[in-house]
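[agent] plan:
  1. take the single chain provided in the ticket
  2. run structure prediction with default settings
  3. attach structure tokens to the ticket
  4. add a short note for the reviewer (M.T.)
[agent] executing step 1
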Amino acid sequence: MHVCMMAVRRFRLVARPVRFYVAGKWCHGGERQWPGFREEATLFPSIFISHGSPMLGLTESPARDFLMALGEQLGRPRAILVASAHWETPTATLNAVAENKTIHDFHGFPPELYAMRYPAPGAPELAEQASDLLCAAGLASRIDRARGLDHGAWVPLRLMYPEADIPVLQVSLQSRLGPAHHFQVGRALAPLREQGVLVIGSGSFTHDLSRIRRGSLDEPEPPDVAAFAGWFDAAIAEGRTCDLLTYRTHAPHAALNHPTEEHLLPLHVAMGAAGPSARGERLHSSAMYSVLRMDAYAFH
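[agent] step 2 finished; step 3 output follows
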């Protein structure tokens, strides 16, 4: 029998008020609740989506069509928490603002992209609760009261929920800490799903930008991309959590398809947020520019 030997922190939420001191911060034990909380709420699966290039906001593609239909299929959450590949900080950080600014964190794209806005309301109270949950799990956290939404969040959300009327917040990545850390971040934030919060990891199923060529939007994917994606899909479907956390040593062509890890780590956040023994379901599979797999998964 294969036993995963990776250390996984276990934590529990308690009914009485508890405070913890973690990384120089007193934090609550999870008893503070977002004012939008009600006893009965829709329990959404946690989702991983591939946002690809910022051009997803303009370019017709199967992935764009999928995202445009996904919001209606999922239904309307009370809030959305996004772990995006495009926000990295030394410590897990939540943005807590009244209204999100649209961050155009890219260069050299058509003017139409820079004119796009996604002024979704923020969720500062929910950010405080999420920070408390991370702290209660032994994970240091911070609050950023100025940052808005990067394109890993607003480009797909503009397709999923174009009205921009659902509160949105982001949690940052710490790519140097690897998949297991991000799985634990997801586990810590899992209780938010019980309040009707949709947890989204936004990255890319494969992400080797060095091989993208102009005009290659619909070219077939190389064998190494197909092999990596096939291995990952099987591991998700079979619930092989340990293999997914150590994919760098198990998946074929892992370093080639992810020279750096930040675009895959949001998947590990989504996995963790689904709770123990969760299984993944592939919602979409396609490729753009031959080397960007745009697969999406729901974790239940």
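[agent] step 4 note for reviewer: The longest helix spans residues 223-237.
[agent] ticket updated
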